[in-house]
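Posted in: Structural Biology > Protein-Ligand Complexes

Title: Requesting predicted complex, nickel (II) ion in pocket

I'd be grateful if someone could produce the 3D structure tokens for the following input. Sequence and ligand are given below.
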Amino acid sequence: MAYLKYYGHSAFEVYVDGKKILVDPFLSNPLSPVKANDIKDVDLVILTHGHGDHLGDAVEILKNNKNAKVVAIFELANHVAEQVGDPSRAIGGNMGGPMIVDGLKIALVPAVHSSPIGAPTGVVIKSSEGTIYHAGDTGITMDMALIGEIYKPDIALLPIGGHFTMDPVEAAKAVELIKPKVAIPMHYKTFPVLYGTPEEFKKLVEEKTPDTKVVILNPGETFEFKF
Ligand code: NI
Ligand code: MN
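-- Reply #1 --
Done. Output follows.
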């Protein structure tokens, strides 16, 4: 069955259509119940941008999982594959150009943020079992209305911690624009500066967008889905 597993911060394991995907695998974050060496049988590592709390342990995971490829914006994918020692493992794309990878449709979408390598992105993963939008690090942007309209995400993973990204107020507005069936908060609690709480986010979404269900995952918890 398709699932999402949360590893704290913005790190998720996504299992759809028989593919195991890690998004932003910063598993050395203080909340993660697993470490990079625990991760096996990965097909894809997707990175939203090059900040250390997203790039995370990608290189080590790719070294340990010889069949896994890295999907990210062109410059970042190439950089990571070079670090791994095998440029052929990069699947570099660019903003708004959906890619067909392992039978999945993967689109890098705008994020309002910065990145040391390439441009910052969110990512949409479209599978036969559901469509997931991982927003990466971003402020709120009207682009989210387009992402909602075009890709119709079943699940939106949204940063809520504030300071570097949206806080619960902006993230609740993002839910209004995206209109997903399920919204899962991320990028909170890892560091003291991230003040936004999932409880406040849930309350605001319930007020403004009652058709969207907020699912709060503790690190290590899994959310199974079927749409
Ligand atoms: Ni960042
Ligand atoms: Mn971040």
